[in-house]
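PROTEIN DESIGN WORKSHEET
SECTION A - STRUCTURE
LENGTH: 198
TOKENS:
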């Protein structure tokens, strides 16, 4: 009787573990109530969710970031060389002024680019900076897509509407990616999450 109870208990534990694992898989594309698509279409091509995570400043949740690629990868150098479109999606978790968001963007670039690298894309950085001027501010729940479209350039979309000018150079888009996945990312745990390949 005791042996049977142990067997039943072990079976019950195994069932719970499997159920938990299944539950985690089913809710893998959700964080802090923000649901993320497993795939998206950019320039007619289906992209896969490579990774996602929360940008936190101290204990404050700032935004959720997700990375979509033609094929999943855990290697940032490989990601920068990929053919085809790519997407970074930002979902705001708190209100933020356009100046604060723009400053954070510039700090991220400055921390990951040297002067020579910045000089190659300075005009494009300026154009992108003008885009932040078009925003009255970012509110909790706002969605910003940063898309790389081969043959076109970097296209931004804010709450479903295209904003700013298209920025043509791939160097610029890869510079944006370095804000989150470069040698000095804005948040090292977020970098790990984006490159998780899960």
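SECTION B - SEQUENCE
RESIDUE ASSIGNMENT:
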């Amino acid at each position: 009787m005791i042996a049977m109870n142990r067997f039943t208990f072990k079976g019950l534990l195994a069932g719970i573990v499997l159920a938990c694992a299944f539950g985690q898989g089913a809710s893998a594309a959700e964080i802090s109530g923000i649901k993320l698509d497993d795939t998206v279409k950019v320039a007619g091509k289906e992209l896969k969710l490579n990774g996602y995570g929360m940008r936190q400043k101290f204990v404050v949740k700032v935004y959720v970031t997700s990375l979509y690629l033609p094929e999943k990868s855990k290697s940032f150098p490989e990601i920068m060389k990929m053919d085809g479109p790519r997407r970074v999606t930002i979902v705001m978790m708190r209100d933020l002024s356009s100046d604060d968001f723009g400053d954070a963007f510039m700090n991220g670039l400055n921390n990951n680019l040297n002067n020579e690298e910045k000089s190659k894309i300075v005009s494009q950085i300026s154009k992108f900076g003008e885009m932040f001027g078009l925003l009255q501010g970012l509110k909790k729940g706002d969605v910003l897509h940063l898309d790389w479209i081969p043959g076109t350039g970097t296209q931004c979309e804010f709450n479903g509407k295209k904003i700013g000018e298209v920025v043509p150079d791939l160097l610029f888009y890869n510079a944006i990616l370095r804000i989150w996945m470069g040698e000095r990312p804005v948040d090292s745990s977020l970098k790990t999450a984006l490159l998780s390949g899960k």
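SECTION C - NOTES
The radius of gyration is 20 Å.
The beta strands are 30-31, 34-35, 39-42, 45-57, 60-69, 86-92, 143-149, 153-158, 161-167.
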